[in-house]
Amino acid sequence: MPIEQKAAAKEEPIRDFQHSLPMELLKAREAAMSRFRPMLRSHGLTEQQWRVIRALAAFDNIDASELAKRSFLLAPSLTRILQYLEKLQIVARASDSQDQRRSVFALTKKGRSIFEKVGPDSEALYIQIEQEFGLAKLEALYSLLAEFYAAVRPLAVNEKS
Amino acid sequence: MPIEQKAAAKEEPIRDFQHSLPMELLKAREAAMSRFRPMLRSHGLTEQQWRVIRALAAFDNIDASELAKRSFLLAPSLTRILQYLEKLQIVARASDSQDQRRSVFALTKKGRSIFEKVGPDSEALYIQIEQEFGLAKLEALYSLLAEFYAAVRPLAVNEKS
DNA sequence: TGAATTAATTTAACATGTTAAGTATACTTC
DNA sequence: GAAGTATACTTAACATGTTAAATTAATTCA
Which residues contact A153 (CB under 8 A, 6 or more apart)? Predict the structure, then answer.
């Protein structure tokens, strides 16, 4: 007994059971990633590893909590990624003299070299997307996403309802 | 040597190395999922399992390829999820008499019962988000996401550049 | 100051994401 | 109608997502 067999009209962006917001966000993200993933892969990186490298290129010597926020990764994922990047000597760990619980991280020379190789390739893909989708719409999308995040963003642990 | 230490101005939605489009899409998605995930978990479901159940509630007796498209899951993930849902007798598999390579899937009575319990809870959260973010903006976001997907969407396997 | 609590990170366990390779069935074409 | 090709999954291997629990160091406060 199918609940809904007819395709939605074209002018009807309202969600139905086939088009939830999380899935539409996922689809848009996947469209973008289908461009970036092969490029990153050609450099031997995953998307998440690149996010960590990019964060460290902008803010060196930050601890894991700060890095997690900036790369938008959960702590357990970040732990594994940092262990891997350390093993490949892309990232170096140092202990924080003020707080023995923390480690602070930085790109190695090899890490900075990778960042400088991948950065331009990433730029080129952004420019391509910007041209295909249009700068105005891209900025509108950025704005709406930021507004949505601000309105609906996850509650931090210490501000539970 | 931090490349960029100053926060971007508020009126500057342009991407920088800290704010890539895939990450902004991920953040928005995560904001939404932070509402849905606990609800789904209280029903013993993951987001992806719920996507499969929802797709089968709308279109019964479809094969795995069709199901993959509608739930936006990759084939290997779908294989595992279907095996799990079969084991729990939420989904039933039948072989396609026309093509022995295919299986067709349908919700069991238990599966339909779950769908009818979870559906309203999901609805309630959508309404809540709609109220907090605003219907007009939500529709604008849906439209932009659809346009973005259409403009940048991944190429199918048989239409590679 | 020492017990209790909090914070930062890590580990564990299981589910999914991603790519490549494998398997079985259908199709095509000579 | 047999060989070659394409299709529809499925399995494999490794990386990440998600939640809970464990570990160790800092902090609080009785």
Answer: B27, B31, B34
Determine contact, residues A52/B18, Cβ cutoff 8 Å.
Answer: no
Percent of chain B with pLDDT over 70: 84
User: Is residue A36 within 8 Å of residue B153, measured between CB atoms?
Assistant: no
- Domains of chain A, each with CATH number or no CATH: 31-152 (1.10.10.10)
CB distance A154–B15 less than 8 Å? no
pLDDT tens per residue across span A84-110 = 999 999 999 999 989 999 999 999 999
Per-residue pLDDT tens over the stretch B142-152? 999 999 999 98
- Find, in chain A, the residue whose alpha carbon is nearest to that of B67: A18
Residue B117 DSSP label: H
Q: Are the Cβ atoms of B139 and A13 closer than 8 angstroms?
A: yes
**Residue B31 main-chain phi, psi, to 5 deg:** -60, -45
As a whole number, mean pLDDT of residues A25-29 equals: 96
SS (H, E, C) B5-20: CCCCCCCCCCCCCCCC
Please answer yes or no on whether A126 and B15 come within 8 Å at the CB atom.
yes
Nucleotide closest in space to A84 (CA vs C1'): D15
Q: Which amino acid is at A13?
A: P
Cα distances (Å, whole numbers) of residue B53 to A119, B43, B86: 41, 13, 12
Give me the CA A101–C1' D30 separation in Å, rounded: 26
Nucleotides of C under 7 A from a protein CB: 7-13, 15-20, 24-27
- Residue of A4, A14, A28 with shortest CB distance to B145: A28
Distance between CA atoms of residues A83 and A93, nearest Å: 9
- Whether the pTM exceeds 0.85: the reply is yes
Identify which of B147, B149, B152 has the shortest CB distance to residue A129.
B152
Judged by C1' against the alpha carbon of B85, the nearest nucleotide is: C15
